Amino acid sequence: MNVSTAILERRAEKMFDPAFAISEQQMTDLLEKAMLSPTAFNIQNWRIVNVKDPALRQKIREVAWNQDKVTDASLLFVICADLNTWAKEPARYWAGAPQMYQEMLIPAIDVYYRDKPQVQRDEAMRSCGIIAMSIMLLAQEQGWHSCPMDGFDFEAVGKLIKLPEGHVVSMMITIGKRTQESFPRVGKILLNEVLIENTF
Ligand SMILES: Cc1cc2nc3c(=O)[nH]c(=O)nc-3n(C[C@H](O)[C@H](O)[C@H](O)COP(=O)(O)O)c2cc1C
Q1: In a domain, 200, yes or no
Q2: Which residue in 56, 122, 126, 160 has its CB near the most CB atoms, within 10 A?
Q3: pTM score of the predicted model
C-alpha cells in the first residue's frame, strides 16, 4: 500500500472486532517502524503504553466516555512522553554521527530544553502527534483500522497506567479490525481556508 492510499483509506473507526488479534511480533514490527518517526534533536521522547490487561482496559473505558473501542480493539496504546529525554544521556542520540554534528548538537539540546517546561511539553505533543500518525498509517498498511483518541480523562488514565513523574499523556490509539464500514467523510473544510500564503 502506498502512502496516499493509506491516508485516503484511514478513518477514525468506532467499532472494533473483539475477536481479532494482532500478534506480539506484528505489534513489535509496527512499533519499530513507527519509531523511525522524526523527533527534534532525535530525543525520541515518546513512551508507548500497550494496555493488554482486560481489567485495566475496562477501567480506562470507564473514564473514556465508555467508548467500546477501548476494550474491543486488538491494541490500545496510550501515547505518552517523557519530558526529560533531552537530559538522559543525550550523546547517545547522536552516537555515530559525524564529529562536527555531535559537537554542535549535543550541547544545543541542553540549551534548547533546560528550564523550559513549555518547550518540553510542546515538544512532547509534537513528537507524539507525529508517531501517532505513523502508527495509524502502518496499521492501515496491514489492513487494520485505528482510532486516535482524546475523549478521556487524562488525569484518571495517567493514574491507571501509573504515569511516572515528568511524563505526560498525549493521546490514545486503538488498533484492530473494524466491524462496520465508516460513513463517508464529512465536514472537511477547503484548502483555501487552511493555506495561507506568506503571512496571515
Ligand atoms: C487527537 C484526536 C482525538 C480524537 N478523539 C476521538 C475519540 O476520543 N473518539 C473517537 O471516536 N474519535 C476521536 N477522534 C477522531 C476524530 O473525530 C476524527 O479523526 C475526525 O472526525 C475525522 O474523521 P476521520 O479521521 O475518519 O477522517 C480523534 C481524533 C484526533 C486526531
Answers
A1: no
A2: 160
A3: 0.97
